[in-house]
TrEMBL record:
Residues 35-90 form the FYVE-type domain. GO terms for molecular function: zinc ion binding. PANTHER family: ARRESTIN DOMAIN-CONTAINING PROTEIN D (PTHR39490), ZINC FINGER FYVE DOMAIN-CONTAINING PROTEIN 21 (PTHR39490:SF8). This is ZFY21 protein. The keyword Protein transport does not apply. Keywords: Metal-binding, Zinc, Zinc-finger. PROSITE patterns: ZF_FYVE. It comes from the Eukaryota.
Length: 217
């Protein structure tokens, strides 16, 4: 998973040397709206001139005045090294995604322990489940070993308990995962259940499941 530093009109990016190693959460840089097609700000309709300069949002590629495109926000989904200029709408989205990258993906990569049941089997296996460092695979390790490509996951159903008529909060206790086998149309299913004993750390498992739920969205 070697990476290389590349320069684009939008800024410096640290990207995988091979496209196949890209994170499934990554985004391609958008094409910029050509200057000749943009005589006015695409947000406030201010006319561009020698004083009012044009700026392109690095996330959507649209053309704005400085007032409407002044924020510089991290954009990890495009692998930018430094924060880049974005319009107000895109900046808000990127800020939320940065929190996802900084918190949820780290939780998933750190992993948690579950009892894993394959298909319709009545036997389960205690396994450590984590997201690979390149974010491309869900890795399960126990007596058996599985690697599920994230892009092949079709359904994530989080199992919960604890709801009460009085409005009590639910907590995540497991997950049903469906995914396609590479090179086949066959769909496999796995069930993940948090262990009851303290050694499995139910709180950690619940955090991992919550992060997985956000990933699926």
């Amino acid at each position: 998973d070697a990476k290389k530093l590349v320069r684009s009109p939008s800024g410096l990016r640290m990207v995988p040397e091979h496209r196949a190693a890209r994170s499934p959460f990554g985004l391609d840089e958008p094409p910029w709206v050509p200057d000749k097609e943009c005589p006015r700000c695409m947000q406030c309709d201010t006319k561009f001139d020698f004083i009012t300069r044009k700026h392109h949002c690095r996330r959507c590629g649209k053309c704005f005045c400085d007032k409407c495109c002044s924020k510089k926000v991290p954009l990890p989904r495009m692998c930018f090294v430094d924060p880049v200029r974005q319009c107000a709408e895109c900046a808000l989205i990127s800020q939320k995604e940065t929190e996802f990258y900084d918190k949820q993906l780290k939780v998933l990569m750190n992993g948690a322990t579950f009892f894993v049941t394959l298909g319709t089997s009545d036997k389960s296996e205690l396994m450590v489940c984590r997201l690979s460092n390149n974010q491309r695979y869900l890795v399960l390790d126990g007596d058996s070993h599985y690697e599920i490509e994230v892009m092949q996951i079709s359904t994530v159903q989080i199992l919960t308990e604890g709801f009460t008529p009085g409005g009590g909060n639910t907590r995540a206790i497991g997950m049903i995962l469906q995914y396609k086998v590479p090179g086949s149309e066959e769909v496999m299913q796995m069930k993940f259940t948090a262990g009851e004993d303290f050694s499995c750390n139910r709180k950690l498992s619940a955090s991992w499941l919550a992060a997985m739920h956000k990933v699926s969205k």
